Amino acid sequence: MQKPRIVAGNWKMNLRLQAGIHLADEIVRGNRPEDVQCILAPPFIHLPLIARKLEQHGIGLAAQNCYEYSTGPYTGEISPDMLQSAGVAYVIVGHSERRLHFQESNALLYRKSLAVFEAGLIPIFCCGEPLEVRQQGKEKAFVEQQLEESLFPLSAEYLSQIIIAYEPVWAIGTGHVASPDQAQEMHVFIRDKIRSRIGDASAAVLPILYGGSVKPDNASGLFAMEDINGALVGGASLVAKDFLEIMASFPNS
Ligand code: 13P
Fold first, then answer.
1. In sequence order, what are the residues at sequence separation of 6 or more whose Cβ sits closer than 8 angstroms to the Cβ of residue 91?
2. pLDDT at position 230
3. Cα-based torsion angle of the residue sequence 191, 197, 201, 205 in order, rounded to the nearest 10 degrees
4. Which of 3, 82, 126, 139 is deepest in the core (most CB within 10 A)?
5. Whose CA is nearest to atom 2 of ligand 1?
6. Distance from the alpha carbon of residue 210 to the mean position of ligand 1, in angstroms
7. Among 124, 129, 172, 243, which is best to mutate for testing ligand 1, by the most ligand atoms less than 8 A from CB?
C-alpha cells in the first residue's frame, strides 16, 4: 500500500473571517500535487463557509479542538457531532498550546479522541516533548506516556485510522525546526509503539506528521525521511504560496 502524504495547515487563532475565506480560495485555486492530501484547520467560525469552498476540491477540513460530549449544557463548547454536521472530517486533538494554556491532560485527550471517532471524524493527535525534557534526554519516555495514556485505551480499529502529529514544543513557532534525523528517530519510535497495538500492516501506513517551524526551505529535507508522512504547519500555512510550496516538497514517487 502507498504510504500516505499529508500536509495540514493549523491556522491557530489567526485571520478574520474574510481573510480566512480568501486564503482558502487561494489554496483551492493553487497547484496541489494529486498524491498529497491537503487539510485546512481554520478557526471554528470559519468552518461552515470554508467547507462550502472546499466542496469537490479534495481538500479536507479540520477543527482545531472540540469538546468531549455530543450535546448538553456546556456553554461555549463545540461538539464533534456539531463539527461533523458542518462538513468537518478531522479534529486536532492535544495540540501543545491546548495542553499548556487550557490544562488539557492525557486522560481528557483520550476522551476527546474517542468522542471524535464516535462522531465519525478522525483525530489528528498531537504529541511532543518540551525543551527541558529533551535536554534531559527523556523525550521518548515523555511521548510514550502521552501515547499510552491517550491512545492505547482506544480500540485497535479506531487507532489504525488516526493521524499522529509529532510536534516538539521547542520547535513550535520558534524557527528551531527539528533536524530530519531527530524527527525521523522519534517517528520510528512512535510507529513501533503503535505497531504493538495495531499490527505491522496498519502501522506501516499510519500517517505520522511532523510539526514545528516547517517552512518551504526545510520541508523537503523532512519529507525525504522514511517515516515522515507529511507536516502539520502553523505559521507558513497562513501564506498560500508557502503552504503550496511545502505541499510540493515530497520526493518524486
Ligand atoms: P509553526 O509551524 O508556526 O511552528 O507551528 C507548528 C504547529 O504548532 C502546528 O500545529
1. 62, 63, 64, 65, 66, 80, 83, 112, 116, 121, 122, 123, 124
2. 98
3. -40
4. 126
5. 234
6. 9
7. 172
The set of cell numbers assigned to 39 is 487539510
In angstroms, the Cα distances linking 235 to 85, 221, 240 are: 28, 18, 11
76: left (phi over 0), alpha (psi -120 to 50) or beta: left
pLDDT, residue 253, reads 75
- Whether 95 sits among the annotated catalytic residues: the reply is yes
**How do residues 47-101 score in pLDDT, each as one tens digit?**
999 999 998 999 999 999 999 999 999 999 999 999 999 999 999 999 999 999 9
Residue with cell 525525504: 224
Q: Is 65 in the pocket of ligand 1 (CB under 6 A)?
A: no
CA of 10 to the centre of ligand 1 (A): 7
**Residue 167 annotated as catalytic:** yes
- What nine digits make up the cell of 202? 496498519
Q: pLDDT digit string (tens) for 184-240?
A: 999 999 999 999 999 999 999 999 999 999 999 999 999 999 999 999 999 999 999
pLDDT of residue 2: 81
The CB of 211 under 6 Å from ligand 1? The reply is yes
Q: Name the residue with cell 517551524.
A: 213
Residue type, 155: S
Q: What is the pLDDT of residues 11-27, one digit of tens each?
A: 999 999 999 999 999 99
